[in-house]
Amino acid sequence: MICQKHLIVICSLTIVSTLLCAYDNSKKKIPNNLRDELISVSEKRVDQYKEIIKRINEHKTITQDVKDLLLEIADKYEKDLKKNKIEFETLKSKEIILEKLMRESVIANTFLSATYNSDWLRAKNFCPYGAAANFSFLYVLFRILDAINPASILEMGMGQTSLMTSQYVAYKNKDAHLIIVEHDSGWISRLQSKVVIDKNIKILQMPLKEVTYNGYATKNYDNFFQQLHEFKFDFIVVDGGDTSERYSRTSVLDLIPNNLHQSFVIVFDDFSRPGEQDTVREVLNKLESAHIKYSTAIFQGTKTQRIVCSEDLAYVKYL
Fold this sequence. Notes:
Blueprint: H1 4-26, H2 32-116, H3 135-148, E1 152-156, H4 160-172, E2 177-182, H5 185-191, E3 201-205, E4 208-213, E5 216-221, H6 224-228, E6 233-238, E7 260-268, H7 274-289, E8 294-300, E9 304-310
Parallel strand pairs: 1-2, 1-6, 2-3, 6-7
Antiparallel strand pairs: 4-5, 7-9, 8-9
């Protein structure tokens, strides 16, 4: 900014320069009339510089006001943005929930239609809510049992799905075998009366033990492999045991790949959770290390299921 001191210097230089120029040209004493004229010109110059400084200062004031206004607008915009972001995230969450409910509703109708005339699924009094198997899980399970006719089934976790798998063994494929593994003895007592009793159905109670997998704390069934190492399975349902934030339900890894039939299907429930995603990745790594070709698919309702199957059964993705 040009200050008063700068103005005096500029004006002085202007006057001196003008006088010197005039003196050099005349080589004589400066006449009074010329001196008065030079002073008048200098005074006009000073007035012009004062006006320039005034305008510069006014411009600075205006610029600062504009800057303050822009900062105020930016601050308000930032606050509005945060508020809108929160509202957007809330709406997005509601939209996701609504979308899941709509998918679940469609799948529920599909499941009810598919099972309506089933001669082997006689009891259809499922309760697909809360932590229990949802309709997309029940539909996937029914379609696999009905279309593939597995002969050796392992169900990790006793629940709504057990009501279906036990009916399959009792009424559809009487040569099939079903092993249900559950850690909670009280839960077994509560559900055992609802599960169809058959000579080919075995319920094993295995307590959970704390283990570490890839540096993360998780829980596995105790003596899981020791009790199951003699069996080979063509259908495994992974939906039991205490869940973990990372590497959840890793007991199944003990059976991959040696305890799988050449043709197999594995269904993981709750695949939206990181712990289950970790375990599925480990299953895929084990299959790839054993040079076993596979196919995968995801089914979604209010919950998410991931299917991993041998390549020859890839059509289950379209059931």
